[in-house]
Amino acid sequence: xxxxxxxxxxxxxxxxxxxxxxxxxxxxxxxxxxxxxxxxxxxxxxxxxxxxxxxxxxxxxxxxxxxxxxxxxxxxxxxxxxxxxxxxxxxxxxxxxxxxxxxxxxxxxxxxxxxxxxxxxxxxxxxxxxxxxxxxxxxxxxxxxxxxxxxxxxxxxxxxxxxxxxxxxxxxxxxxxxxxxxxxxxxxxxxxxxxxxxxxxxxxxxxxxxxxxxxxxxxxxxxxxxxx
Amino acid sequence: xxxxxxxxxxxxxxxxxxxxxxxxxxxxxxxxxxxxxxxxxxxxxxxxxxxxxxxxxxxxxxxxxxxxxxxxxxxxxxxxxxxxxxxxxxxxxxxxxxxxxxxxxxxxxxxxxxxxxxxxxxxxxxxxxxxxxxxxxxxxxxxxxxxxxxxxxxxxxxxxxxxxxxxxxxxxxxxxxxxxxxxxxxxxxx
Amino acid sequence: xxxxxxxxxxxxxxxxxxxxxxxxxxxxxxxxxxxxxxxxxxxxxxxxxxxxxxxxxxxxxxxxxxxxxxxxxxxxxxxxxxxxxxxxxxxxxxxxxxxxxxxxxxxxxxxxxxxxxxxxxxxxxxxxxxxxxxxxxxxxxxxxxxxxxxxxxxxxxxxxxxxxxxxxxxxxxxxxxxxxxxxxxxx
Lengths: 228, 190, 187
Known about the structure:
The complex is a heterotrimer. By secondary structure, chain A is mostly helical. Chain A contains 8 helices and 2 strands; from the N terminus they run αααααααββα. Chain A has one domain. In chain A, 71% of the residues lie in helices and 2% in strands. The radius of gyration of chain A is 23 Å and the shape is flat. Chain B has one domain. Chain B is globular and about 60 Å long. The interface between A and B is large, with 45 and 42 residues.
């Protein structure tokens, strides 16, 4: 029973607690570059999750065989192999999508999320936990990319996933689908998520203070009365 | 003329950081001080020019003749990693002050997607040797420019009263957005 | 020494496995990728020559030109793929031309990286459709909105003047090259 709880945690922590895009601020390049439409955002997140999951699995299996001096080089080769697989498969099966994502599929290889999870988690834990950790981080990345791309596509081209949502009378905010819009939307989302986290922390702290308040109050009154 | 267009395009119109979003990690990480930003920019430019040369030679004289284009990504990234290591060793040998200035930034460059992006663009766009070198110089200049401008702004931003949740990365990104808008003014130069 | 051998052996084994795996996958993917590319080109050729049924790639230096035939194998004109600089980067167009090169059948923008929402309007039909039946002699020209265009003129898009001008310039550039080929009897 207890074990199951940790496994769930391995998965769920990637979604919010250590969300790659909002908490670790890793993988910013694809987050910004491909989020002009929701379709591209989802495709990018799925491709990244695929590479992340398989490389985490392989790296975790080999973690005891690789000498620590060459581990980064070995990880990079493993990751690059899976990235090439994704790149070739996408070019062969989804030429349109591969064209619109451009060089950002090959660039998954330097996405810090993947090397980061390999070094921080997969190199220290078993295959099952590593896969769950990778899937969790992938899901977190997907959520972040969908949020960002939905906002950008909605205001920039009036649609989400190509379906028009806002009426024709709404003048599209072109800045949203420009690079500038990517930076600003991501900055705002990051700022709000930080503010939310800060507030949660403050509320938790106040809760803690309230818990101990009676004791403190009694103490301070005592002091006052003594002074009097 | 064509070479000049490649340079201007890589440096300002299609700036690696502000239009292609390449090299955002160091852009956010190292842009809080002007001095470290310019060192990082120079180190990156240096590695970019070397990468442009090496990846051009690797792609056109080894990968293409032997039909190994599918090994492009692994071989580029390994070449970049060893190149950075090599540059670090050379700089350490020949100049201690330079090593102290650039040394700590070099390992960071390996995971800078701008470098791999540069190598991929060179093979994708079929640049010839001279064009590749110019492209590398332009991309490096553009990266340095964006980084230095950002650092200058961030030094001033330290004094501004930014809401707590927006300090650090969020306000940097928003500032970068405004900077990206400003850089759009360069479009039409080519 | 032992660690060194271990290190090199590990890297070699990983490299060999990765290389083997990738060469297998690339053997499967390469023909598919080539087919996709060919299909995309074919589609574009017939998109600007709606009457076309078959085509032939002409071996001309410096230009990508296809001779297009109709159902009864009669030549009906050419499809020209040409590229040049736009506002932010390269614009690549495909132009369908009549056999004497004096008239455009239709025009399609294949690739562009113009400003979304502004320059990208050159890919929209109300701009592209202006090229239908446009006369190419002496050369194409553009006018501002509100002016009546002549038979060799298109109306530039407000807010995307540079991109609109660029498309016209690219086509003119390609036409000049084609005319030279035509005079040399290479078509």
